[in-house]
Amino acid sequence: MILRTVTSFSLRGGLFRATASCSRFYSSATNIRNTVYALSSGHGRCGVAVIRVSGPSCSDTVQLVCRRQGLPAPRHAALRRLFDPVTGEVIDKGLVLWFPGPGSFTGEDCAEFHVHGGTAVVAAMLDALGRLPGLRPAEPGDFTRRAFLNGKMGLTEVEGLGDLIHADTAAQRQQAVRQMEGDLGQMYGQWRSRMLKCLASVEAYIDFSEDENIEEDTVVRATEEVERLGQEVEHHLSDNRRGERLRDGVHVVIVGEPNVGKSSLLNALCQRPAAIVSPLAGTTRDIVETGINLAGYPVLLSDTAGLREAGDVVEKEGVRRALDRASKADLRVLVLDSPSVLQSKLPQITWVDFLLDHMRNLGLTTAESSCSDVMSAAACGANTVSTASSVRTMMSSGHDDGGFLDSSALRSAADTLDNVIVVLNKCDLLEEEEGCVFPCAKDLGVTVCSVSCTTSQGLDAFVATLADHVKQLCGDPLCGTPSLTQARHRSHLTQCLHHLRTFMQQVANDDLVLAAEALRRAMRELGHVTGAVSVEDVLDVVFKDFCIGK
Ligand SMILES: Nc1nc2c(ncn2[C@@H]2O[C@H](COP(=O)(O)OP(=O)(O)OP(=O)(O)O)[C@@H](O)[C@H]2O)c(=O)[nH]1
Ligand SMILES: [Mg+2]
Fold first, then answer.
1. Nearest C-alpha to atom 30 of ligand 1 is from which residue?
2. How far is the CA of 396 from the centre of ligand 2 (A)?
3. Taking every annotated instance into account, which residue ranges of this chain make up the domain TrmE-type G (predicted)?
């Protein structure tokens, strides 16, 4: 059932980002000398609340709160009565954990108080800690920032941890765990050390080329290695934004003429009446967005205004927004009204041409029709059928015959339709022999699903098809080399690749000094990604999405 694969999810980082934005982020690395504390478990009444403390005053804090009952054994939970150190009042009885640095998460002395999760208990604990000298409330991401500054985590691992906290779906979680465990950082680190070796070779050659100990092919081997590195970086960059899509959500837009059932489809997918449905054409004016979890993958779904020559200024703006959203989407779901398609009087036209014509009329493409305009009548003849019978053929056979596939014109038409899923809605209104026998058909790269939003017929198959497309766009986060996940990485890696190419050019120009400088710059770009070179300016950006207590 559709219900199995689709669940709503809150859009990326809603809760945590709101929390972070309420507070000015703490940016000075020197302030890690303070001891910080925070409620690390969620806010609100709960069974157990975890309060974390990190910093040099940590052991004193534990002993004061535990009234000199002594520090628990490292990394062992100890049951203690917890006191307000100033008033001497018992606040609660709970577990205390002591993590001496540097073997702790932050790399400095840390402690955790596991107390009963009532509002008054948590408030009393935080209040008591706040009155101790040298302690201050933690800022968002303070603990992880300390871990980074103390060399416990690289920057990509920190980002992986941030993504894990924000992960709404299984695939996002898998990608984030992989990154947090260092897969991506290791790959970048290995590239950097390979570049360092090349740089050492080139510099040695510059400094000691007269020396007979330097082998003649040193520079040749370094150049070959840099070329390989360039290819690897280029390959990593040309991943069709898989990792970024998975992290941020795949943008799917529902488009089509008014009244074809776009809003009904959106509501069926998110299983709630997110958009108004009515028999009046032009009901939806603005974009209606909702996030769904599609078989473990995050999808940001947009319903749009029906595309037509708009009557008034509001609808015109709605149509403009719809077309704009469609042009930026990763996937477009083009909804058509099945009875209208079957009754279409378009003369002698192929199914692909019909779709291209339709999309052009709606303003969704400027691509020319393939068959009627480009192919000769002879080549096209065998496949030239009326729209109605073309649709019927497609529905019953699942694909067209092989002649189509050889045409480059049709291939380019298929490319235009590549990120389009066609939904033939309202199939409940067709005669039995006309529709819905094979709800999903693949035709020249365009996927066609026959559904009814009213009876739910074909919706499961459509959801499965949509999920397949989304998975293809994101890839399997557990397979292959780890994906690039952030625009920040892309920007530095693009620069890195540019410098590697400059290295090759300078070697070809016989200018090894400039070549070495290019290699140093390439390494610096990689260092910005992993945090191996000074990144103070990017830390605020990276940590701003963290929640307090992490
Ligand atoms: N019989 C039938 N009616 C449907 C189906 N899907 C939607 N409808 C009806 O078609 C009408 C239009 O549905 P909407 O979902 O509002 O269509 P829309 O494409 O969003 O329309 P606009 O917002 O005006 O562009 C409503 O009366 C729906 O109940 C279907 O599968 N079968
Ligand atoms: Mg609508």
1. 426
2. 30
3. 249-471
Pocket-testing residue among 277, 319, 423, 455, ligand 1, by greatest number of atoms within 8 A of Cβ: 277
Total residue length of the chain: 550
Whole-angstrom distance between the N-terminal and C-terminal Cα of the chain? 38
Q: Which amino acid is at 428?
A: D
Q: Determine which helix (DSSP H) or strand (DSSP E) holds 3, and give its type and residue range.
A: helix 2-5
Number of neighbouring beta carbons within 10 Å of residue 171: 24
* Distance from C-alpha of 333 to C-alpha of 422, rounded to nearest angstrom: 6
- The residue whose CA has the least distance to atom 7 of ligand 1 is 261
Q: Which residue has the tokens 């140093």?
A: 520
Q: Is 425 in the pocket of ligand 1 (CB under 6 A)?
A: yes
DSSP 427: G
Write the pLDDT tens digit of every residue in 280-338: 999 999 999 999 999 999 999 999 999 999 889 999 999 999 999 999 999 999 999 99
Question: What ipTM was predicted for this assembly?
Answer: 0.99
State if pTM tops 0.90: no
Rounded to the nearest angstrom, the distance between the alpha carbon of 278 and the centre of ligand 1 is 6
Q: Which two tokens stand for residue 47?
A: 């069974």
Q: With a 6 A CB cut-off, is 152 part of the ligand 1 pocket?
A: no
Which one, of 496, 487, 500, 502, lies nearest residue 524 by Cα?
496
